[in-house]
Amino acid sequence: AVVTWTPLLSEIEAMPNSTKVFDSGKIPGEIIDLLVVNTETLKANPDFGKALVGAWYEIMSTMSADSAAGKAAREFMGKASGTDLAGYEAQLASTKMFYTPAEAVTFTNSAQLKTTMKYVAEFSFKHGLLGEGAPDAGFIGIETPSGVFGSDSNIKLRFDPSYMKMAADGKL
Length: 172
Fold this sequence. Notes:
The chain has one domain. The chain is mostly helical. A hairpin with a 2-residue loop joins strand 1 (141-144) and strand 2 (147-150). The protein has a 3-stranded mixed β-sheet, covered by helices on one side. It has 8 helices and 3 strands; from the N terminus they run H-H-H-H-H-H-H-E-E-E-H. Helix 3 (46-64) crosses helix 4, helix 4 (68-80) packs across helix 5 and helix 6 (101-109) packs antiparallel against helix 8 (162-168).
């Protein structure tokens, strides 16, 4: 058994006797690529958060551009991912990307994010990923702008759109 992502998936599927048993397309929005920073580190170093978010959206702007620079960025990323431009662009086509901070803020502020995190916590609990002693999926807390799923006193993941909002407002 292998867990992988496109473009490597295409190579595995081309192998004899390989069978795809699951595809994340069946659970849209539940697998979220994140940029994660420790809460205390971010509080102590807000300029770090600003620099990180600024760099993130600078490259997102470049890689999504229909320009020579955008194509060069996607080619580089494709090669770094073990594929070529076409393979990387196929991956991007099957992935919901938040190319602008405003898109990411809207997503993070949505009530759907809290619901999605409930599903993720339930899956994680069912498969023993919350650690020994976790009595249920709500053992840990996941904080979103629309509220907390799980324990308010044991928050392990926070979705904080404040730095993305600064980027969207041009205030980094």
